Amino acid sequence: METKILGLMAFAVAVSGCSQLPSGGGSQPSEPQQLSGKGLEVTEFRVTDKTVSPGQTVSVFLTLKNFHREEINLGDIYLRNLGSLESSAGPDGPCTPDEIGQAKKGVAPVMECEWRVTAPEEDEIGGFSQGPRESIVANIPYDSIIKNYRPLKVKFMPLSQINRTSKKTISFSNGEVDVNMETETPVPLGQEKLVDFTVSKAGSGRIQGKYSFDYTPSTVFSEECPTQDEPILKDSLDFSCPVSLEGQEEVTRNLFFTIRYKYIKAPSTTITIVKDS
């Protein structure tokens, strides 16, 4: 059984410009607009040896690639569900970089982490030939954000000039949250119309706590628009928000919607302790 032991026990490094994003072409208004739609992607979570002897030390590697176009606040990353195993960190401390840069102009920043994990000694396992099988989890929490980079264009005009209306919809995603916005246009000046929102959790992670909502421009969106909500016992939220504009002449406004939230990813791998025969 091969054991790979590195002198550096734990490290974290943020690297800019080491990964190229796929080139983007034109897209329809209803298609996702957030680069690759991957958010913060776990590209690797592995252990050098999944079967270990008592007292053996192995390395656990984690690699993250950030496709977010907005800055994310990455929290402490650590291993949990270790059971009888022990993890250690070197002089550089735990895998907790202050931040990882956002993706821009074809570059997705990469962050790499490593831990050393040690199995218990033989006398701690007991008389069994095979010890426990531990499912190790990397806890990756971060504050994230999503917004529409292409606006929802809504026309406002005098009621007397409106002959017909049509539905206007945009959808966007970052691999963590999917968003859909829909309304009717044109909107009569001096009257309200509703913009309907659907916000859904996407990907393998989970939303912790509440969503926080921002709407732009504030001169169009009503003060009645919800500023936060919590996805309790469901992965999708549906709500509406009034828009209106005073005036006498036809005008088009670009509507933007921003969501802030905490997202947690938890990839897993396994280690089984086996006594030497």
Protein architecture, described:
This protein is mostly beta strands. The protein folds into two domains: 11-145 and 264-274, Immunoglobulin-like, CATH 2.60.40; 146-262. It contains one helix and 19 strands. The strands form three sheets. Strands 3, 5, 6, 9, 10, 13, 15, 16, 18 and 19 form a ten-stranded mixed β-sheet that branches. Strands 1, 2, 4, 7 and 8 form a five-stranded antiparallel β-sheet that branches.
Structure at a glance:
With 277 residues, the chain is mainly beta.
User: Separation of termini?
Assistant: 13 Å
Helix content: under 10%
Mean pLDDT: 83
CATH class of the largest domain: Mainly Beta
Along the chain, the helix and strand elements come as EEEEEEEEHEEEEEEEEEEE
The CATH topology assignment of the largest domain is Immunoglobulin-like
Give a short account of the largest sheet. 10 strands, mixed
Radius of gyration: 25 Å
Percentage of residues in strands: over 45%
Question: What is the architecture of the largest domain at the second tier of CATH?
Answer: Sandwich
Instruction: Say how many strands there are.
Output: 19
Indicate the low-confidence ranges by residue numbers: 1-36
Structural class comes to mainly beta
Overall shape: elongated
Number of helices: 1
Whole-number tally of structural domains: 2
